[in-house]
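haha ok so turns out i had the wrong file open the whole time. this is the CORRECT one, sorry everyone. sequence first:
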Amino acid sequence: MARIIGGIGTSHTPTIGFALDAGKQGDPAWAPIFAAYAPLKAWLDEKKPDVAFVIFNDHVTSFFFDHYSAFALGVGAEFEVADEGGGPRTLPTIAGHPALARHIAEQLVADEFDMSLFQRRPLDHGCFSPLSLLYDHAEGWPVAMIPLAVGVLQNPVPTARRCWKLGQALRRAIESYPEDLSVAIIATGGLSHQVHGARAGFNDPVWDHQFLDLIVNDPETLAQMSQAELAMRGGWESSEVVMWLVMRGALAARPEVLSRNYYLPSMTGIATLLLENRASVAGLKPMAQLDTATLSLPASQPFTLDVSVANYDLNRFLQKMVEPRHREAFLADEEGALAASGLASGDQNLIRRRDWTGLIERGAIFFGLEKLAAVLGLPNATVYAGMRGETLAEFQASRNAPGALYSVGSSLKQDRPAE
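then structure:
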């Protein structure tokens, strides 16, 4: 019978993979990231799970709004690294485990979770950013992976309670598999961060530590929280932490904490948590005391179905920056590419002016802007600063590690030799 040997919770910000690829292990601004992953990597090296079940969300890279699923289970034989706008990272393809994935799919559907299934879709930083620090992979990945993509970008999204229940069903599914396999559950996302609107750059380390307390000792409290409450506490995009509840729901009632780390260099609270099987109540503010104004413009703009439908063409133009021909044409002749795009003149002007705030208010999702910035060789912080009405220097001065600039692309302008 297959067994779950433990669970890992990890942020999945591109900062993590960027730090590895840029060789930042010795840089004081980045070294705490590597230190946080060392005990998790050592545990995986010791336990050698046969399968890593990785829960993540795609960032409008391989899954778009023409068909957007709440839960999409990867059942393919292998999974490649996605191109997010600046070329894919140089990571090897990772093997899937189709037999276990098929069994899980069958059992979850029987348990009344109607799963979407996918094959041959590359996976973005939501999956590979943390995975690249958890395993040595120069000679190939030493583990098979089953990915579960959770649709947390376009409202309505799966609730915290739904994810908690999915984790419990996942445990039943894995433990009913007849082959003797060991499985590690790896949940990604968060912690506190917001990447769009005037609230871009928001963090709350107090809440982040409360979240880590609760996910260990009182996950039921988290399961009762709405997306709105999670967003007010941690920022809009941080509400993706519902994915940690899938992992936690798959574990025993009182796991032991083997490792816990937290570091906030810039945009995202980077947390790692390793659980094997153990209790404290966080001093949360009542929801009634939270500021509901943080959920609306200019601080935030929920990406709802009406926003998605009304701005499909704009978001599609930005998302296509993952396609080499599209971005090469844009870089070679921006005016020609915009003229041929079919976009309204106002939308073209927003792109032309790099009006990040205007694009968000128009209905662009941040993860499209992130791809455009990558193509232009700009760090994400350029977009965040623009949305807050600040210069890049002003924005970086508000970060704990002002020198930590990153992108989902393969390089930044400041990394390139002077022309």
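The beta strands are 3-10, 51-56, 71-74, 78-79, 94-95, 116-118, 144-150, 182-188, 257-263, 270-275.
again sry for the mixup
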